[in-house]
Amino acid sequence: MTVAPLPSDIAHIIQLAIAPVFTLAGIGALLNVMANRLARVVDRWRALESELPSANDVTSRTHVIELGVLDKRMVHIHRAIALCTLAALMICLVIILLFAGQLILIPVATAVSILFVVSMSLLVVALVSFYIEVRIASRILRVTRAVLEAGKLDSTPRR
Q: How far is CA 3 from CA 69, 102, 111, 128, in A?
């Protein structure tokens, strides 16, 4: 016969589950940011792809190079989204185990600890992948020195 958990026991488990729930909310916010970045990359991809058939050779080469960069960005952002999703699933399992361990009276401390460490590890790798995507995006948008120098020459006063 199983003994029903006391309200104080349930309250304690809810207190323990608060930190993973906040972590889950943070991961959700990260997923939102990453999904928005992915949408922007996909929009740019579609715009370039639609211009490609009517572009001249120089523009076509430029578009193909940018499409290659966009492809790299998509790989990194997809990886980041997948890893964040896995991290969130691990956190959900942590919360489930916290409650199941109280209801079924089984030791779950080791499993909860391992799942939490795995979740944080997945989140770290996801953030590194996200950082790489952001670096690629910012590197491609930087204006080269030659362009800046050409701009300075054009802006000099003419007599």
A: 60, 10, 23, 46
Locate 48 and state its tokens: 């370039």
Q: Do the domain assignments include residue 25?
A: yes
CB 132 within 8 A of CB 83: no
Farthest-apart Cα atoms in the chain, separation: 99
- pLDDT above 70 coverage of the chain, percent: 83
Domain count, the chain: 1
pLDDT 10s digits, 65-118:
889 999 999 999 999 999 999 999 999 999 999 888 888 888 899 999 999 999
Is 39 within the bounds of a domain? Answer: yes
Kindly report the number of other CB atoms within 10 A of residue 159's CB atom.
3
Q: Give the span between the Cα atoms of 74 and 67, in whole angstroms.
A: 10
Kindly state the helix (H) or strand (E) to which residue 122 belongs, with its residue range.
helix 109-141
Asked whether residue 159 is assigned to any structural domain, the reply reads no
**Tokens 């940018």 belong to residue:** 66
Is residue 42 domain-resident?
yes
| pTM greater than the 0.70 cutoff | yes
Task: Give the residue numbers spanning the domain of 77.
Answer: 7-154
Kindly state the tokens that stand for 135: 């670096």
